[in-house]
Specification:
single chain; alpha+beta; 60s Ribosomal Protein L30, Chain: A; 5-stranded mixed beta sheet; two-stranded antiparallel sheet
């Protein structure tokens, strides 16, 4: 019986490879993985869900800048900044945020608000949105200590798109709702 088991194991190794896989990118700590380019990120999102191409023009890269009643608003797409269920920023994302706030007027009042979609509990979403807003604020505070910051998480209370349509889940709408906004007087 042992000989038969050994032969089965040998056959499995021959087909599947060794039982102890070689070190791969999966074995590296996240902070040691190479940072993807913005194009690679965009292509990977499109590859994961072809419907993302329908959003063209609505969500572009890391941030969109708009004006809202005299305020300048930099909207950061949470899906690009943060991993699922996380609030820590990569060094590359932090560098990009620093670049985005370079042109904010000196000593401006800046509000940083975190937002989530409607999946999960209200309390969970409020905690996650607050943690993400604080992470962005920490980067802004280090790079622009002159700015007067107000930081707040709004959870799912201020959607910019429907989370559902016709009673069905709306992934595109939920993606738009997952964001961090940096607002200041223009």
């Amino acid at each position: 019986m042992r000989r038969a088991s050994a032969l089965v194991l040998a056959g499995a190794v021959a087909v599947l490879g060794p039982l102890a896989p070689a070190a791969s990118a999966d074995d590296l700590p996240v902070d040691r993985l190479p940072a993807p380019t913005e194009q690679q990120l965009a292509e990977s999102v499109t590859a994961l869900d072809p419907r993302v191409s329908q959003l063209e023009g609505r969500v572009t890269g890391l941030a969109t800048e708009t004006t809202d009643g005299g305020d300048e608003v930099i909207t950061l797409a949470s899906d690009i900044l943060f991993a699922f269920d996380r609030s820590d920023l990569s060094p590359r994302a932090a560098a990009r945020i620093r670049g985005l706030v370079e042109d904010v007027p000196r000593r401006a009042r800046v509000s940083i608000g975190g937002h989530t979609d409607a999946l999960g509990s209200v309390g969970y979403n409020l905690r996650l949105s607050t943690a993400r807003a604080r992470a962005v604020a920490a980067v802004v505070r280090r790079s622009r200590p002159d700015l007067r910051l107000t930081v707040r998480g709004f959870g799912e209370t201020r959607p910019v798109a429907p989370n559902t349509r016709g009673g069905e889940d709306d992934p595109e709408g939920r993606a738009e709702n997952r964001r961090v906004e940096i607002r200041y007087a223009g």
